[in-house]
Design a protein that fits this description.
By secondary structure, the chain is mainly α. The mean pLDDT is 87. InterPro entries: AA_ABC_transptr_permease_3TM, ArtM/GltK/GlnP/TcyL/YhdX-like, MetI-like, MetI-like_sf. It is found in: Cell membrane.
Length: 278
């Protein structure tokens, strides 16, 4: 009688596969989200919310001044602060990379102090401490100059580290190649290294611009005139006058007119940078 080989059957796995588990987990998350939205929609008092935050008559009275004055000042404060921060951050980054010890120490101390302090304290320091320490001294540009300086001091600490990382990310062979072509170290840094570094750090610098745009709301602690108000101050003043929160909502929507497009630009830049690396 011939022997027959019998292949034992594999035991059938019990339970869900990994893919099925992910599908179930995703389905539960969607269900929780939908349930939360429905619960909010059913339980919220939409009449009271509309009465407090969505008075069309009050919103209409804000235009065009909310754009021509408040939004314009907000953009102006942000752009000037970003310019000051970028210039100062570049200087501090180069000091941080310097072979001279005191330069590196001063840059490190500046970064640690201004990166650790809240932006509010910097604004109070510029608006109160500087006039007390130097009586009769006026910062160029008045309120606009004070805001640009305050935002610039805050942004420079973060930008300096971003720029330093970008410079160090450029391959060392780029500097060696430039030196072999007769470039001095300074000229090679300005003409070869820094332009390549900025292509690397452009997305985080744009993200810093978005953060500065929101930090410009701290200008109210400097004491501004009616013509110098930015979005937050403008919205709060009208909310107090009308005893309604609609101006604050409109001011917030105006912020989104800038931050959402800038956020989209940052994501596009990051995607292109990743494609270039690949």
């Amino acid at each position: 009688m011939a022997d027959t080989d019998e292949t034992p059957l594999r035991p059938r796995r019990k339970g869900l596969t990994r893919r099925q588990k992910r599908s179930v987990s995703r389905g539960i998350q969607y269900a929780v989200f939908v349930a939360a939205v429905i619960a909010f929609g059913v339980t919220a008092d939409w009449g009271r919310l509309q009465n407090q935050f969505a008075q069309v008559e009050i919103a209409e009275r804000m235009f065009p001044e909310v754009i021509t004055l408040a939004l314009k000042n907000t953009v102006l404060y942000t752009v000037t602060g970003f310019g000051v921060g970028l210039a100062l951050g570049m200087l501090i980054a180069l000091m941080r990379l310097s072979s001279v010890g005191p330069y590196r120490w001063l840059a490190g101390i500046y970064i640690e102090i201004f990166r650790g302090l809240p932006a509010l304290l910097i604004f109070i320091f510029i608006g109160v401490a500087v006039p007390l320490a130097f009586p009769g001294t006026e910062i160029i540009g008045g309120t606009y100059g004070k805001v640009a300086l305050a935002l610039g001091l805050v942004a420079a600490a973060y930008m300096a580290e971003t720029i330093r990382a970008g410079i160090q990310a450029v391959p060392k062979g780029q500097m060696e190649a430039a030196r072999s072509l007769g470039f001095s170290p300074g000229r090679a840094m300005v003409s070869i290294i820094i332009p390549q570094a900025f292509r690397i750090i452009l997305p985080p610098l744009t993200n810093e611009l978005v953060l500065l745009f929101k930090d410009s709301s701290l200008v109210l602690f400097l004491g501004v005139t009616l013509e110098e108000r930015e979005l937050s101050k403008y919205g709060r003043d009208l909310a107090s006058q009308t005893a309604n929160s609609t101006p604050i909502l409109v001011a917030g929507l105006c912020y989104l007119l800038i931050t959402i497009p800038l956020g989209f630009v940052v994501r596009r830049m990051e995607a292109k940078a990743q494609e270039a690396v690949r």
